[in-house]
Amino acid sequence: MRKPELINKLEGINDVINMAVIIPREDGVISVSDDRTVRVWLKRDSGQYWPSICHSMASAASSLDLNQETRRLFIGQDNGTISEFQLSEDFNSMPHTRDYVAHQGRVTALLFALYNEWVLSCGRDKYFQWHCSETGRRLGGYQTAAWCTCLSFDKQTNYTFVGDFGGQITVLKVSNNGFEVITTLKGHSGSVRCLAWDEERNLLFSGSFDQSIIVWDIGGQKGTAFELQGHRDKVQTLSYSGLSRELLSSGDEGVLTIWDMNAKRQETPDWAESDACMKCGSPFFWNVKSMWEQKTIGVRQHHCRKCGQAICSKCSMDRSTIPVMGYEHEVRVCVECKQSITECVPMATFHDMRHAVLSMHLDVQKKQLLTVGKDRIIRLWDVGNILS
Fold first, then answer.
1. How do beta strands 318-322 and 310-311 pair?
2. Pick the CATH number of 5-267+347-382 from 3.30.1240.10, 3.30.9.10, 2.130.10.10, 3.40.50.720
3. Domain extents for the chain?
4. What's the pTM value of the predicted model, to 2 decimals?
5. What are phi and psi of 172, to 5 degrees?
6. What is the mean pLDDT of each run of 10 residues along the chain (388 residues)?
7. 321, 328 in Cβ contact below 8 A?
8. What stretch of H or E contains 337?
């Protein structure tokens, strides 16, 4: 079986590494961590990566964004400030150019939009903010109902997607003069931890602590959403490869899942509500009236993942994968649906990453994947043989 090949390990950071990115067109990596350091790692003649820069910030460095055309580096901090640096051509120095006093809490995500000259950010103060990178002036802000956790941006439409701790995603259209709230996407039962955007097909991917990924068809404007259920623990990070149309996801279980986003998929049905099993009529345990009339003990309510009907455990003894609906592990189905499922060919592959993954970054040109682990190690992988 094809699998990612480990190229290198970057070690020596003694605190939580919050994020790291591969430097485009260079054998280099930039990392930020809770020990307040920003480190620029370059590959040496020995084949190992060593820091060429180790810069200490005023507080824990929580997020970063690097613009490859201009080598402008933006660092979000625990104190709410975003600091801008200019990386030198040899990556041996990074003069400080500007501070943005953006938030009153930890900066959880930030993006630099070069065409608009905007610095977009969100934080634990429940605010999404955007600033002009030419003047440093604040252009606007929007308050969400919970901590903001992640951010994505479509440069063609200026749509901004803000995920929060409450499980919602707010869609905003931003400009130099203000913003317009387009909609709020609700589908996760846990906090939204990561977002990825397919700018070609206008698909938004969201990963959550509820162990699920939802694919939102923003461009279709019909409210279509598909679920991808392949993780057994919190989903922490997503990366999308537009060239191969594959979504990469990982998280606390330490498994990299690669989803084929060319495959035709079906929406998962809404779960029906009933006071009795919709197959055999057995009353559920809260239906006291029917229990008394039938002189029987109430049963627990379950749901068939394929048809969504409310059923008892006797009528849902079967298990099956349903890849077309995003279920890559076996789930509960009713007898009728079990017989109707004929196609069980997986639409995703699973690979061991050897550590619980907090963050990752995909360089499509190099076909390299960087993973940041809870073990405080950065791993570099060759994924050329597993991407289509």
1. unpaired
2. 2.130.10.10
3. 5-267+347-382, 268-345
4. 0.92
5. -120, 145
6. 90 96 96 98 95 97 97 98 97 97 98 97 98 96 97 96 98 95 95 97 97 93 87 97 95 96 89 92 87 86 94 92 91 92 89 96 96 98 88
7. yes
8. helix 335-340
